[in-house]
Write a structure and sequence with these properties.
CATH topology of the largest domain: Tumour Suppressor Smad4
Distance between the termini: 19 Å
CATH architecture of the largest domain: Sandwich
Structural class: alpha+beta
Radius of gyration: 19 Å
Number of strands: 14
Strand content: 35-45%
Number of domains: 2
Low-confidence stretches: 158-163, 254-266
Order of helices and strands: EHEHEHEHHEEEHHHHEEEEHEEE
CATH class of the largest domain: Mainly Beta
Shape: elongated
Length: 312
């Protein structure tokens, strides 16, 4: 019989709902652990490991998934990770094709096959202090970080991912061009950019695909540096983000017509790397897996291949 540690965010889902969903899945011994405002997942994951589970199941948003994955990635012979997506973002779940429905996700968590998934690690300098975090999907500054900061929480609760699209105009207006220093595996350059993103996966809030070539198990990070300081450049960026790699995918029969590998704009640097360092002349809002992470003036990202094994 499978032994599972279920880590859930009680502000996202009720335990009773989870118990009902798991009752329809295969038989298992379940141990229950709640996240809190003080411990979004790292500490509770260590507690959950004490029951010697075969799988650690996270029922929560992107923040809880990232926190638990960070703990498992630093654990020798760690159990599998499974995701029961809750909340709005569900970024890693969406990128891995994990079902969003409660019952389907619970069944997959207990019976799905496990696949190795990379994690990125980012060191950020905020107000002179260096912090280190894992990320499963995407980090960076610019349009994406500003879109998250500008999203109305009440609208997000009512409209879900469409709230992110609504915020995009304000995000664009706040994403001014800076001279940034970028070093990719020892190869450095300076360029004007309004957005720098480092991804393990390519899709973000609202179904927008910023890095169509990024995959979660290739041992690489994908780096996108966007520089568009004129009006036509801005419109090219927004069109590709929102239409070509976003809303267009919702149309019937669109799968065969959406570009699969085109970088976001012609005015872009797009590279794969194992190590990237970015230095900004002044702090800018930064995001880690869809969550605000303060204002950052410098960051370094590296990849940990096959850091966790996720049941998909």
């Amino acid at each position: 019989m499978t032994t599972a540690a279920v880590i859930f965010n009680p502000t996202k889902v009720r335990r009773e709902s989870l118990e009902k969903a798991f009752a329809s899945a295969e038989e298992a011994t379940l141990h229950w652990f709640e996240t809190s405002a003080d411990d979004p997942g790292q500490g509770i994951a260590q507690e959950a490991l004490g029951v010697k589970p075969d799988v650690v199941i996270v029922a929560g948003g992107a923040g809880a998934v990232r926190a638990v994955a960070e703990a498992l990635a630093q654990t020798e012979d760690a159990p599998h990770l499974a995701i029961v997506p809750q909340g709005t973002g569900n970024l890693l779940a969406r990128n891995l094709g994990i079902p969003l429905g409660l019952t389907a996700a619970a069944k997959r968590a207990l019976g799905g096959r496990a696949t190795p998934v990379d994690l990125g690690w980012v060191e950020v300098t905020t107000e002179g202090e260096v912090q280190r975090h894992a990320f499963a999907v995407l980090v960076g500054f610019g349009i994406d970080a500003n879109m998250i900061a500008e999203t109305d929480d009440d609208l997000k609760a009512k409209a879900g991912w469409l709230a992110y699209v609504e915020s995009l105009g304000r995000a664009v207006s706040k994403s001014d061009v800076l001279e940034v220093d970028v070093t990719l595996d020892g190869d450095g350059f300076t360029t004007g950019a309004h957005t720098v993103l480092v991804g393990n996966c390519g899709s973000v809030q609202g179904g927008l695909t910023l890095m169509p070539d990024a995959v979660a198990d290739d041992g690489k990070l994908d780096v996108l540096v966007l520089g568009a300081d004129d009006l036509s450049g801005w419109f090219s960026t927004v069109k590709t983000m929102v239409w070509d790699h976003g809303l267009r995918k919702l149309l019937p029969g669109s799968a065969d017509t959406v570009p699969a590998t085109d970088p976001v704009t012609a005015d872009a640097h797009y590279r794969q790397t194992e190590h990237v360092h970015v230095s900004l002349p002044e702090p800018r809002p930064f995001q880690i897996d869809g969550e605000e992470a303060g204002h950052v003036s410098e960051f370094t990202a590296t990849v940990q291949p096959a850091a966790v094994h996720v049941r998909i």
